[in-house]
Amino acid sequence: MSGIRLGILVLRQLAKQQSIMTMNTNSSIWVTLSALFFLLLGSFPVEAYEPSDSNLRDSCKNLYKLEIELLETTVRQRLLSLTDEYLNYSASCIEQLPRILQSAVNIIISHSLEDEKLKTRVEDLLIDFGKLNGERLNEPLGRLYVFSQYSAEKKAIGVSLLEKSARNGEINSHYLLATYYYRLANYELAGKHYKFAANANHLEARLMLNQMKMYSLITSGTWESIYHEFSSLAVIEKYPKASYFLYKLYSEFSEGREFMSEEQAIAHLKTAAQANIEDALFSLGSYYFSLFSETDDVRYIELAYQNIYKSHKLGLTKAAHSLGLISLVAGDKDSACGYFEVSITQGYGKSKPKYDEFCEDR
Fold first, then answer.
1. Listed residue (108, 129, 135, 101) closest to 39, CA to CA
2. Please, which pLDDT band fits residue 153 given cuts at 50, 70 and 90?
3. pLDDT band at 27; cut points 50, 70, 90
4. 162, 176 in Cβ contact below 8 A?
5. Which helix (H) or strand (E) holds 239?
6. Residue 128: pLDDT above 80?
7. Is 113 helix (H, G, I), strand (E, B) or coil?
8. Considering the entire predicted model, what is its pTM?
9. What are the start-end ranges of the E strands in the chain?
10. d(CA 33, CA 265)
11. What single string gives the DSSP state of each residue in 1-53?
12. Please, are residues 257 and 291 in contact by the beta-carbon 8 Å criterion?
């Protein structure tokens, strides 16, 4: 059977499957992308690359294992190698192709993998497969252009693609546009898109919209409504970042207001820290460090170090400086200087005077 013939059959079969699926982005993309793959390979006999059912299942099992390894890997070269290997599965796990491409975009952006070879490969795959899918792949390609390092021209194209996707009803595209405008300090457009996504119960959009109200970046609601929205996200939706913002609301805006007790605020902070929210880990560590300063209880300095170290491993820039300060208090000058050096390398200005004061004579 030719690749073209198989592509047509796949298109028909997946169209039947889609009719019984709940609507989501992946299901709509699967239909045309799967057919496109076989159409592109139409000049080759299917037998030359068609795996057996058991081999296909085994291959896709390896794909899932690889995804887990990608989640656990932070070393740049290893990430590049694994992502390249991950993209190779597009042939054997064709129904997973949209997810593979979107995951590759996620990896590039979240780890700042500004590798031109990898980015070009992902970009080309998105463009090639998008030709048959019309506007269905606008969001991942637009996201790649907007949130990775590209020319101003391509960023403008990316914004246009996200706007088209948003007009087509993709709620996450509204969230991405809001995030883009928020970073540009265009709070009017950011609030507009966050509100659109929040109305569709996009949890991060609800959180960001409420945060903007808390800091009066857009027209604010009452303090009670801000508190209740964070509480709804934290308690009803079980969204841990909202627990951190309940703590922020208490620590920054509680004077003269009765939102919650200090014990309740710290309980929310611990909930967020348990979910590895890096800012929550840092704040909890700072809280324990303040308790050590008040009590001289060494248990608190140990807890301070543990939590701030976790935030450091998650990539929080200011954490290395605090680890240096804690190490100084603990009498470990070598470790302190090492952390100050890391902090200086990361561009955190407060560490240079400390390094000059304590470490120049090493």
1. 129
2. very high
3. very low
4. yes
5. none
6. yes
7. coil
8. 0.78
9. none
10. 48
11. -BHHHHHHHHHHHHHHHHTTSPP-HHHHHHHHHHHHHHHHTTTSBGGGT---H
12. no
